[in-house]
Specification:
This protein is α/β, with parallel strands linked by helices. The chain has helices at 15-20, 58-70, 98-109, 140-157, 171-181, 202-208, 228-240, 254-263, 274-285, 291-305, 315-322, and strands at residues 31-38, 44-46, 54-56, 75-81, 114-119, 133-134, 137-138, 161-164, 188-195, 244-248, 268-272, 309-312. Strand 4, helix 3 and strand 5 (114-119) form a beta-alpha-beta unit.
Length: 323
């Protein structure tokens, strides 16, 4: 034949054909929505660094979560903003802490919504680091005790899943042991297994008021250049009892997601972080990108790489677009 018999364009000819042979599909059930909760009542305060996102008081948080759940988003992950910070991160594990209050309200009002909590101390410490400081460095093993207390307090308040994001060594095993000792054997752990010391966290640190007052987090978060180390981190978390592993950020680390997918059968989460979201929103505001097409393409790339779950600030909009 003078021309190849194989013509791949045949199945690209119409929208229906393209949909029929589409290999990667997004659905609202793939998304986890990050929400920021603070003290007060009737508060819905815009976050300047994250266009379209808000600091929410508990009553407003419930309404936001209700809307998300109605759109088919199955889960939210909560980040708390305390009234006071201290060196021991007391509100992180206080019975009446802001996240604990939010969990009880959400559990009462939305029993079908999956509640995930970020387990870290950075929002609650006066210095902004993810653990207890000793001689200018985070003390790994003392920090494990506080992280375990925090995870238990979240589970007792209604969390279905606790998600340690601190990157301390051994924290999955410590939290699993603490949960089990309290009879909380059904509480799942979604480990931030490969969390890189990324330049893309800036807007989140502004939103969560968690920028370190001195130094940085490179002593415990991962070097962005390291792939093999990321796989070791994942393997350790799996061995320690993680139920879900996570790669964070998402798009700059699609290769890591793919390699993790090849190494484990556990569910994989990926966090499309604040900087990824903010860059896209800035391009949209400048008229350089069309929001729906760009956001869905970015989210599809994350799922195509191997993620089962995507934490994204686009959750509400994307769920509407896909409905």
């Amino acid at each position: 034949m003078g021309f190849p018999a194989t013509r791949l364009r045949r199945l690209r000819r119409t929208g229906t054909l393209r949909s029929m042979v589409r290999e990667t599909r997004l659905a609202p059930a793939d998304f986890i929505a990050p929400l920021f909760v603070r003290h007060g009542e009737g508060v819905r305060e815009p976050i300047p660094s994250l266009a379209g996102q808000h600091h929410l008081s508990v009553d407003m948080l419930v309404e936001e979560a209700r809307e998300l759940h109605g759109l088919g988003v199955p889960a939210v992950i909560l980040f708390g903003l305390p009234d006071e910070k201290d060196e021991a991160a007391l509100e992180a594990y206080a019975e009446d802490g802001i996240v604990q209050r939010a969990l009880r309200a959400l559990r009462a009002e939305l029993p079908g919504l999956t509640l995930i909590t970020d387990v870290c101390l950075c929002q609650y410490t006066s210095h902004g680091h993810c653990g207890v400081l000793r001689d200018g460095a985070v003390d790994n093993d003392i920090t494990l005790e506080l992280l375990s207390q925090t995870a238990v307090s979240h589970a007792l308040a209604g969390a279905d899943v606790v998600a340690p994001s601190d990157m301390m060594d051994g924290r999955v095993a410590a939290i699993r042991s603490a949960l089990d000792d309290e009879g909380l054997t059904d509480t799942a752990i979604m480990a931030y297994s490969a969390k890189f010391a990324s330049a893309f966290y800036g807007p989140f640190r502004d939103a969560a008021h968690s920028t370190p007052s001195e130094g940085d987090r490179r002593g415990y978060q991962m070097d962005p250049a390291n792939l093999r180390e990321a796989l070791r981190e994942v393997e350790l978390d799996v061995a320690e009892g993680a139920d879900v592993v996570m790669v964070k950020p998402a798009m700059p680390y699609l290769d890591v997601i793919r390699r993790v997918r090849d190494r484990t059968d556990l569910p994989i989460a990926a966090y499309q972080v604040s900087g990824e979201y903010a860059m896209l929103e800035a391009a949209v505001a400048a008229g350089l990108l069309e929001r729906r097409e760009a956001a869905l393409e970015a989210l599809t790339s994350i799922k195509r790489a191997g993620a089962d779950l995507i934490i994204t600030y686009h959750a509400s909009r994307a769920a509407k677009w896909l409905s």
